[in-house]
User: Fold this.
Amino acid sequence: MTARELALQLSAKFSGLISEPTEFRGEITVKVMDAGRIAEVCALAKSELGFDYLVDITSVDNYGEDPRFEMDYLLYGYGHRCYLRLKTDVSEEKGGLPTVTGVWRTADWHEREIYDMMGLRFVGHPDLRRILMWEGYPYFPLRKDFPLAGKGSEVPEVAFTEPAPLQGGPFVTIAGGKDTISREPRVRIPETDALEMNARLERRRDIKEAHGKAHGPGRIEPPAQTAKP
Amino acid sequence: MQATAQIGYDSKSEGDVIVTRLDAALNWFRKNSLWPMPMGLACCAIELMAAGASRFDIARFGAEVMRFSPRQSDVMIVAGTVTYKMALAVKRIYDQMAEPKWVVAMGACASTGGMYRSYAVLQGVDHILPVDVYVAGCPPRPEALLDALIKLQDKIAKEPVLSTLKKVA
Assistant:
């Protein structure tokens, strides 16, 4: 029994719902055309095709395309030792799909993570709470339209967030450079550095007032405007 | 002995009497029995544990009494990545510590957020606490933490005590 044969058996059970299996580097993928029936497909893959282990569920944000989200389910069978990947698309309007917690209980936390990070909802999930961020955090940070630096938020008495200044790098890479230096420009803008440092000192002064203790360096003046080449 | 010469004590002529300033004596008590609150949040905590174990032996500096109760601690060693989810808990534990109290930011993450320029990580514990000593490194070796401890002791030795005491009405 190979993964391709199992995939063909699966598409035979659901005529028209499941695409032809595609192979990439020895791994078989099929696409489920209707995300609303993913739980049915998974239930049958487990009960009749022996996929008794759900390795992982992940989601992809194809921002700017329609449908926007893609869900990947990686299945494995301890009996036949084959892997199978199921993919399905979820549009932004729908924003959700049926849960597979009824098929594999391990899907509980996988789906909570996807809900937390990507904001997709799983219909019928027994306990759909955030798993990494706290209740009340207003964003879904792995969406492509969420800025790399993060956003400010506050849930009183629980947690707050502030945007992290990226200063043009080193975490912002530019594709196509001929070497690492041009791909990862460590841009330093002295004026911006001084602004940020002073904002930081401002916060320290608040702490000092609250605790009556001095610490840290003094205020930094921005450097005089230098001639640009 | 060298130590007795430093405080100008001659047992032959002065008997059991030591003359010093009260500030200096209080600071001497304080700096030689700093009880740390080990705020271990990431891999720096492993180096913190190494600093406490026999090879590096933080007991040589009187700071071996790791207290997991903030009420009994003098210095909070923030060892690791402070996430926003943990930040207010760290602040709360600091607030529960009795005065006088100090803070050591151990490692790049506690000092500045380190490599985590991220939506989830506080960019330096000095956004919420008054830090006395920053330790560079990712993670810093135990020697670096011991050096920070010695620097903190030097700082404590110079702190005014009596002039800053609050008057009880």
In short: Residues 35 and 130 of chain B are 18 Å apart (CA to CA).
